[in-house]
Amino acid sequence: MLSATTSLTERELESPLLAKNSVPLRFELLSPAKRPIQTTSDLGNFWKSSYFDVAKDMRGKYPKHRWPEKPLEETPGRSIKR
């Protein structure tokens, strides 16, 4: 399992495969406070569905951070609003 913030996995639609391309890497997605918010081995599905529920919750907890409405169209980078 790899722990990473959502901003580090933006625009990644496929999880890397391990064990001769048979086992997808599991990601532990972290909040800006580095606390786990979701675990997935399917990044594409996360960005197309689960992300929207996670972002809704995180917008209230971390209002200074970017939680884009269309994450797949955003340029990955800093998560703090300017």
Q: How does this structure look, described?
A:
This protein is of the alpha+beta class and 82 residues long. It is 28% helix and 21% strand. The protein has two helices and five strands, in the order βαββββα. It has helices at residues 6-9, 43-61, and strands at 2-5, 17-18, 23-24, 27-30, 36-40. A hairpin with a 4-residue loop joins strand 2 and strand 3 (23-24).
Number of helical stretches of at least 4 residues? 2
Q: Kindly report how far apart the N and C termini lie.
A: 32 Å
Record field, number of beta strands? 5
Helical content class: 25-40%
pLDDT average, as an integer? 85
The coarse silhouette is globular
CA-based gyration radius: 13 Å
Low-pLDDT segments, ≥5 res:
none
Record the strand order, biggest sheet: 1-4-5
Order of helices and strands: EHEEEEH
Class from helix and strand fractions: alpha+beta
Please summarize the sheet with the most strands: 3 strands, mixed
Tell me what portion of residues adopts beta-strand conformation. Answer: 15-25%
Task: Give a short synopsis of this structure.
The protein has 82 residues and is α+β, with helices and mostly antiparallel strands.
List the helices and strands and how they pair.
Elements (H helix, E strand, L loop, with lengths): L1 E4 H4 L7 E2 L4 E2 L2 E4 L5 E5 L2 H19 L21
Parallel strand pairs: 1-4
Antiparallel strand pairs: 2-3, 4-5
Relevant terms:
82 residues, alpha+beta, 3-stranded mixed beta sheet, globular
